[in-house]
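Input structure tokens:
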């Protein structure tokens, strides 16, 4: 999953990034409201942590503009103020959750997991397609017919999760690179090719019927192998 943290306290942002990186999230940081608003408007994030008080553009204004623009990415707001009025203001503008500083990092991680799963109403721990199951907690893929399994590396996991959540859709190389490495990364598109190759090998290892097919001149999509 990919997380955007919009927080002007650099030290706090780095602590948050470290905590979520340990949980297999890819984390991007923004230190002001305008930058955060632009990044969050991209639709590339699974969740956003948004500070209420920010330079350039207030966090509440950022959230208001997103919701007015039909950006429905789950948002958890942070604030140093505990007044009920501030909490109600954020929730009224469309925040999915609210946490007052200082907070416990484990609670923040747990709350983000809740709001990212809430959209589907039923919490799930895995994704399935044909005979392929991806365990979202362990990063293990399993052939549900033979029970063969193998653990994915971090980027392989993120790549396969992206494909399984967009099953049947052709994903452009640029989309994949942005989702896995972010807008400001220096990753070349051949990095996408490398991790596609690694992931294909593991799908082959468990003898899954699911494969990653190249769509010439466009990108890749996940589909069932025709035997």
């Amino acid at each position: 999953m990919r997380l955007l943290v919009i927080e002007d306290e650099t030290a706090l942002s780095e602590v948050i990034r470290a905590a979520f990186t340990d949980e297999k999230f890819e984390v991007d940081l923004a230190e002001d409201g305008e930058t955060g608003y632009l990044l969050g408007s991209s639709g590339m994030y699974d969740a956003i942590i948004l500070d209420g008080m920010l330079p350039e553009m207030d966090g509440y204004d950022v959230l208001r503009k997103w919701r007015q623009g039909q950006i429905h990415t789950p948002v958890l707001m942070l604030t140093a103020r505990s007044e009920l009025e501030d909490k109600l203001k954020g929730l009224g503008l469309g925040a999915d959750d609210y946490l007052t500083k200082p907070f416990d990092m484990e609670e923040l991680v747990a709350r983000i997991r809740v709001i990212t799963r809430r959209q589907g109403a039923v919490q799930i721990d895995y994704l399935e397609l044909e005979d392929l199951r991806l365990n979202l907690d362990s990063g293990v893929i399993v052939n549900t017919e033979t029970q063969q399994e193998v653990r994915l590396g971090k980027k392989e996991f993120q790549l396969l999760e992206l494909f399984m959540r967009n099953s049947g859709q052709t994903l452009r190389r640029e989309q994949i690179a942005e989702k896995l490495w972010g807008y400001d990364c220096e990753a070349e598109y051949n990095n996408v090719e490398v991790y596609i190759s690694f992931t294909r090998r593991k799908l082959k290892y468990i003898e899954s019927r699911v494969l990653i097919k190249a769509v010439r001149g466009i990108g890749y999509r996940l589909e069932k192998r025709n035997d």
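The CA atoms of residues 201 and 207 lie 10 Å apart. The two ends are 32 Å apart (CA to CA).
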